[in-house]
Structures are given as C-alpha cells and as structure tokens.
C-alpha cells in the first residue's frame, strides 16, 4: 500500500512532466526558423487538407434550408512568372512583439516583377523582393506589412490583393498560416470568386446570388480560387538581418588578409551573420539557393560626401549622401551613412546609419540630454509626415566605456524638447485634429521616467475629454473629466 501511495504521485508527476515537455516541444517546433526555404507550389487538395481544415458544406440560411457547397481551386501565392524557387527568412522572435512576431522575407527571383511599388532609387537594378509578415499567435493568420527593413528591395504593395465579393468573403474563417518543424504555409486571406450559382431543382441553375424569389429549398454552389504556397526549410541559419547593396561592392570570400573576392551588383543583398566596426560578415544567396560566405568592408558602402565635426576632444568623421532632385524630401536633405569617432587619431567607435541630414553645416547636434555634464549626440531621425510628430535619435555618452550608447526610449519621443535649466524633457504628439497630448520626463535613478502626461480628445458636440496624469510622491495620479474648450487647463 505504501508503495502504491508513494509511487502514484511520482507516476502522475512523470506524466505531467512528459506532457509539459511534449507541449513545449510542440510550441518550439511551430516557430518559423531563420534560414533558406524552398518554395513548393503544389496545390493538390490532399496536401492542403493535411494542414488546413477543408470546407465541404455550410448552411448559410437554416430558415430557408439553403445549403452551400464550396468548390476550391488554388493558385501559387508567389507569381511563377518571376521564377521564385527560394526565399530567405529571418524570424524576429522579439519578446516584446506580443501578438504579432514578424518574419522578414526576401524572394530570390529570376526576373523583375511587373506592377510592383519601387521603394528606392529607380536607377538601381533590382532582383529581389523584400517583405515583412506579421504572424498572429492567438489565431493562425498573417498580414503583409510595408517592411522597414527593406531599404531598397522591391515591395509588392498588392501582395494579398485578390478580387473578392465582400458578401461571401467573411463567411469563411479558414486558418491561413501554418508552421511545422521544417515548413510554413501562407494561404491568402482573400480569394477570387470564380462562379456563383443556385440550383433549385434537378436541372435549373441561376448564376446570381439567391434573393427573395420565393424558393424555400435550394442548393448554392460557389467556386473559389485561393492563393497558396508552402515554404520548406532547405537549411537553418543564424542570420541577424538583411543588408541591401545600393551600389556595386567587393565581397571578400577568403579569410582576413587574403585577396579572394567577387563583385556583388547594385540591388543585390547579403544576409548578415555578424557586424564589426569595419566589416559586415554574412552570406550571399544566389537565385538557385547556392550560398557563398564572405564579408563587405564598411567603407565600400559609405560612398558619398564627407564632413568632420569636433565635439570636446573627439573628432567625428561623417559620411552622408544628399537626396537627388527626384528624391526631394522637405524634412531632410539626405541620409547619414555612418559616423567614425576618433580620439587622438585612434578610432574608438563606429555608428552606422544614425539618422538624416537636415543641416550640412552642423549634422550632429551635441546636447547634454541626461544632464550628467557630458555632451550627447542628437541626430534628426524622422518627420511626422503631414503632422508635427518629428523625432531624433539620441546617443548618450557613457563615461565608463567612453562610447555613445543608443537610447531607444528617448529616441522614440515625438517633438522632443530638452530643457537644461529645469533638467526636464518635454514631448508632444498629435493624432489627427481632435486628439493630441504632451508628456514630461525626468531622469530618476538614471532612468528616463514619465512624471506627467496630458491628453485631450474631441467628443460629440463641444465636449472634450481631458486626461491628466501626474506623479505625486512616486505614484502616478490620474484625473479624467469632460469639459468645454474654455474649461481646459493646460498643465505645462
């Protein structure tokens, strides 16, 4: 009896542990791996139904006893005319990405696709399509988004833009993303309606949706064509990011100090495995999936104008390019390719692509943004488009390492204003004409801390919702009230 009593919990514990391990391994195997994938355009129903629940019948109107039968047809998601056999995928397993962890993907296509939105200089020869997918964790779905990583890859703006009839489209709720251990599947959320007919007796069909024609019993037949592609892992990799090449560069394929190299043309790319101050290390992948490891010297990419600035005892060598007349932007004259920082002619730091050029006389603006007595770097990063939501990138000087560290939170503030006298940083934003806000920050225990927040939002008529948060004795106090315009109280 004692053996039974003592071994039973152990037995249950082993089962529970095994179950947890199984569930964990299932979750891990479902994640899309970084690597090179082969495109599989098979669209036979047996293969598809192994991963997706098939649609056989759906009763769209039980009161009238009208049954609907679906006839599915499939076509490749990637246009076969451009000859895509392989794609390179980087899985961004960011713990802060929440519901939508992104996948970055580059198609290795033979031919330049038609009707694609070009996102870089039209003078460059491009072969590759870059895109970013947001994958839903709670529900199996994916969304293509305009990728911020591409910087020159062709982007297919209408990737998932297939004709569909809205009155039918949302009656289907198929899972359109699936990942297994060594593959993932993308199926279009939209579909093309090929035919729509209603059978009311053994020989009569109507080629329009069933309306109020007095039929109490009928059978609806719908034929759809849906785009679908499978991506099977060819080789798992540890790529960090994609490096697009805006000009022809030398790709060194031998060890350091050796001469073997090949030329990579403008519009090509490498998948980066490591970065140093002098080199981009990575792999070039050809359209047939062949891999060539190597490295690119950073100065070979920084071809442009040059300017020197001195801040305290540091010398800044700034490489930048100005926009052409065709690329004119009212918010910035050009882009900073990189900055090399020297002390006594010795290189101590390299900062890559830190921001934009607004003033060629003074590109870097030194400001003591954390009020520690050392000048930090403020570099313009973006405008707010039609609104005033501009921002800067901030690199804070670290006296221990004697390097400038990028500060993500500070760089994310909109319309930042550093007040050295009050040792306060203000920010403001606008979300349309009827919603705007302001924020006040202070450095508390070396952390940038929100100490006050104010927001107004227009409501119906002349009513306005006013929200005011303020830190009092270490705790945020919140007040919300509904007022008219003349009753607003701006705290700062």
Walkthrough of the structure:
Keywords: Signal. InterPro entries: XAC2610_dom (IPR058087). Residues 1-30 form the signal peptide. With 492 residues, this protein is mostly beta strands. The chain has four domains: 35-143 and 165-236, no CATH class; 241-297, SH3 type barrels; 302-411, Lipocalin (Beta Barrel); 413-491, no CATH class. Helix content is 9%, strand content 48%. It has five helices and 31 strands. The chain has helices at 2-30, 45-49, 166-169, 298-301, 408-411; strands at 35-40, 57-61, 66-76, 86-91, 102-108, 128-135, 142-145, 177-179, 183-199, 205-206, 218-236, 241-244, 249-252, 261-264, 269-275, 279-285, 291-297, 305-311, 314-322, 334-343, 346-357, 365-367, 376-384, 387-398, 403-406, 417-419, 424-430, 435-444, 447-458, 464-472, 475-483. The strands form six sheets. Strands 1, 2, 3, 4, 5, 6, 7, 8, 9, 10 and 11 form an eleven-stranded mixed beta sheet that branches. The chain has a six-stranded antiparallel beta sheet with strand order 26-27-28-29-30-31, with no helix packed on it. A hairpin with a 2-residue loop joins strand 30 (464-472) and strand 31. The longest helix is centred in the N-terminal third of the chain and has 29 residues, at 2-30. It starts with a helix and ends in a 9-residue tail after the last strand. Mean pLDDT is 77; it is low at 1-29, 54-59, 118-123, 160-174 and 206-215.
